[in-house]
Amino acid sequence: MKRLLATFIMVLCVLAVAAESIKVGGLTRSYITYVPRNLGAHRPLLISCHGMNQDANYQKGMLKIETVADTAKFVTVFPEGIDKGWDISGSRDINFVLALIDEMVEKYDIDPCRVYLSGFSMGGMFTYHAMNKIADRIAAFAPISGYPMGGTTANANVRPIPIIHTHGTSDDVVTFSNVQNSLNVWIRHNGCPTKATVTANYRGTPNITRHVWGPGNDGVEVVLMEMGGKGHWISNDYGVLTGDEIWKFCSRYSVDVVYPAEKPQVVIDQRFTSIEEASGKKFAIVNEADGMALYGSDNQNLGYGDFSEAFDDGNSGYHFRLVKSSVANAWLLRLVSPDGSDYSIWGSPGYLNSQPADGWCSFILGLNNQNGQDIKNGALWDIEYVEGKGFSLKNLGTGLYLRDAAPAKYDSPAYFTFCTTQLVSSVRPPSSVRPADGAVYDLQGRRVNADHLSPGIYVKNGRKVLVK
Known about the structure:
Shape: globular
């Protein structure tokens, strides 16, 4: 009987925790889910990101969210970062989070209006990054022991957002002394009072002080959980669980989300069929068959992802232009920044580089003289157009072809389309709607009274909003 009971308990655990994967941007991304039994319909979702050099399973063990989730009935997802880290400047992992939300909505009937994002250390830095990127999809944010090391910013077009930040005063990795500077940025942005309500000995614990700035615009608050004497870890002492505090705060908030979310589609506007036709123009380099494109993923690295990942203004660029080389039949491909200017790296032109013929250099959008290698070894291209197929890119130094974001190492070519593109959304605000006038309009472009809205879909500041 005891053996049967133990087996039954093990089965329940297997049902509650699952290791899964999803394809995002041409990569297979892994994650762990914790799903309470008898979850119910239209329940919330918490996404919890691990620290640098950690993993999803370690984050799950530190957060200890199971009891809280079982009681409150919400799903928790622990994503795996690439190389145990997070993209805290671009869109690679932002797209991963968005894909996870879609996956959880489909699998578990998650309420897309009640999705919360948290993370520890570098995961906390990523949480701050997401505040500027996807505040329209995340109802509240909960960074733990992490903030942007280069300084915090709040984009002017981001809505007021609720934040609970938890941090140990003895943290020697991401120091507590700079937490307030990051929070002040969002306190001002949210229109919160600059003077906090302070609760010392929070819940009878002498080492925890809770600071609350708010309410601000839209009723949001910014909260700091100051963990006295705690280092760089998730604190769960004295009966005060970090996960429980995060849940109690976040669960008060929701954000209007129209689901499925409107995703602008990248449409090919003009295809070039010769070098002459493409010269003098900026163009995307896409693989139409796979729905993928080349782009600058961050300050120096080349990326190759699906259109939603590649054509994002958070990247260093996704258009290129041809530059004639002094070498016969050879071309340089200069990256163009999203603002239309030529991309530069450390003050020098940023070109599409590859593995050189001699020696070694990293595959980057790089300098004229990267690691001592002359540019002709890595960044000169023999570009050929084949009717009905597209352009091939052969590295002049190695004689090998480019296919993706790896060095040009293939004996046979892949064919790319050089093209101009445009973003097309299935829902556009009517032409009479000024993008940021703050008024509310129906889908016919008629201005309506924001205080007396019937359930339905409306347009405000150029975005669709759902009124339930």
